[in-house]
Design goal:
With about 270 residues, this protein is of the alpha+beta class. About 30% of the residues lie in helices and about 10% in strands. Strands 1, 2, 3, 4 and 5 form a five-stranded mixed sheet that branches. Helix 3 (about 165-185) packs across helix 4 (about 220-245). The longest helix is centred in the last third of the chain and has 23 residues, at about 220-245. It starts with 14 loop residues before the first helix and ends with a strand.
Amino acid sequence: MEIKKSKNADVTRKSTTFLLMGVNIILLIVIGLFQIRDYKEEEIVEVEEVASIVTSDEPVIVTVREFDPPPPPPTPDAPPPPPIPTEIEEVPDDKVMQKQPELAKTDVEPAAPTPNYSNTGPKKVGPPAPPPPPPPVEKEPEEKIYNRANIDVVALYPGCEKYANDKNKAYSCMGEKLGQDIQNYMSPPENDSGKAYTVACQFVVDEKGNITKIQLNDSAPKEFVNAVKDGISSLANYMEKRSDKGKGITPGKNALGKPVKMNYVIPIRFAPNE
């Protein structure tokens, strides 16, 4: 026998009805919550009064009150008049002095003196002022002249190249060889005085190796000084020609290896004749 399900036992038969009922109940509750008002009576009265004032069509009358200006301040009382003298003193006529009115002092500068046009001749003009002196001429600073003590590499005379690394020996070598060459280029005078004479010869070897600035002492007789002067002058000209060919005196050098000027002093001795 087939078992059939009864329609009354269907649980979902009235689900739509209950759903609609629940939705309606919820809507009614929400609408009721919106309708709840929590106003006080005083606030309601104030709003109504303000609304009635704003919405009234009656014109508003504004009364302007005019105020009188304040009274002016009182003026100060005038000083009382001086008392009238009761007694009148009589003054004799001879004592009456008439006072003259004083002139008002004004700050008026005295008038300038009028020029005298009587001497209308030409004015005498003095001599013109002398021109200003010319500006001083600045002298060029002289180059430093070294000596054996402060030079790094002394000048080398031809034949002294082997002493290039020894400053003292190179200096002595130059003195010997240069002294001999000076004697070869001069004509020594006869020395019959029985005395020995020494002529100090001072000169400068410049950056090119030339002998310049020759100075001789004059303590010896004149003929000896002139003989040394002729000899060193002739030797200087000869060395200048050799320097042009690269065979003259090698100039001294400073610490930077730059050719510089160097001072020399060589004594030339003249022995007496035997």
